[in-house]
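Researcher: Re-running this chain for the archive, since the previous output was lost when a drive failed. Same request as before.
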Amino acid sequence: MTQPAYIFMDFDGVTHPWGEVEDFRCLPLIEAVVRDYEETRIVIASDWRVLFSLSKLVGRFSEDLRPRVAGATPHLIPKHGSELYGLREREAMAWLGQHVPDVHSASWCALDDAPGNWLTRSRLLLTDFKRGFTDEDAGALRRMLDGFRSGTPRPAVPRPSFLRRA
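Model: Regenerated structure tokens:
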């Protein structure tokens, strides 16, 4: 059995473009990738987790994938503004600490449009907030999940095309 792989997932800027209709139009593409990796579990790391119940958030996913939503990260409240940088990653590590025997060997990645939320850039699949999750992102996520399957400790994620210089 392959070790579980956890995807810490933001919503705005990932499942749909940020600032547009919250229609989750990109979620089917994410789900298509997840279906090919039975060991993959989704953990909601979006701010939506403090606004809506977990059952309401899980209801956004296709019925066959709902059992693979493993929960939501805890909401940590920073005491100082400097603690905002990397906050989502700290919340993800807190969740892993409660759910896996060895956080340091856990297979995990993040889908987010805000790079400041994550310190471990090799585990971040950065989406373009104007487009949400794209076919290019799907390929990068597949490579990352393939890396976890093969035992690559920190799969390389190419720099997103929207950040490359022409």
